[in-house]
Hints:
- This protein is of the alpha/beta class.
- It has one domain (22-195, 270-343): Alpha/Beta hydrolase fold, catalytic domain (Rossmann fold).
- The chain contains eleven helices and ten strands.
- The radius of gyration is 19 Å and the shape is globular.
Amino acid sequence: MSAILSVGLMAGANAKAVENTNPFGLVYDGAITENIAGKVNIHPTSYKLHGLDIAANVYTPADYDASKTYPAIVVAHPNGGVKEQVAGLYAQRLAENGYITIAADASYQGASGGEPRHTDKPANREEDIHGMVDYISQYPGVDNNRIGILGICGGGGYTIKAAQSDKRLKAVATLSMFNSGRVRRNGYQDSQLDTVQERLAKAVEARAETVKTGKERLVGSMAGISDEQAEKLPFDLYREGFKYYLRTYAHPNSTFEYTESSLMDLMAWDATNQIELINQPLLMIAGEKADSLYMTQDAYNKATGTSDKELFLVPNATHIQTYYVPEYVNAISDKLVKFYGEKL
């Protein structure tokens, strides 16, 4: 497996996306196209986090009344994803079921601020989650005793870590959880164990180069890969991810490119370290046929700090299919609504 594949996918400049006419930039099926009184509405917003401007979308339920109280859900997007893709889809679905929800672009990524662009450090992603909780906890109508979280793919791994200490999160759910540290360190499905030190040395070299030149070395690009080449990629996650992020649900802010020096932080990090600190109700959802399932199973087994936990497998689904296939999205949404309804 090549080094380019080991660091993930990128929505490259050659993405053959259908022109996006959604006024909010949303690219998922069934997305809101206008705010209508009495229905679920979307509210693009921004807020400061450690001096950075964070771009977010807040969804409010039908007949939202700021004088009433509502449970709220924070949604953390996948690695390389943005709030307008799958995170927005599930944020909208949950709002349709009575929740105030928020999906924000990670700092240094998407429409959020931060330099150098594409910095991808775990501490930042964890703080992004805390920042979303900060913001939504002050939103009119939110019941601070009923805030939950949904982390998707890489956002699921960061959710597992953030929830260990952020007890404002009363119910924790992940979907197709991706442990970024384990994959950057060991390769996908632990396929690069023999090159860990070599890749870490390159990350250190990249940092030294930045100090000397002021320029960041970026990795993760698949911009030069054709559809035919993508069909030959070794894992379902890569093959289907290529189509999702570069073709059918592409967004100009969505890219898997990241600074190579970030690997110094990523490779020394793991979502499951101290996972026993999670004592909140925990629901982990994954596709039954996902080749990333091993990461969800590993985290679930290590989450010994809560007895209120469940592993829910979506029959026949792969990792990326949980992002958009109606049958699977409906089943996942129903499970999430039941879980949050019982736990919040």
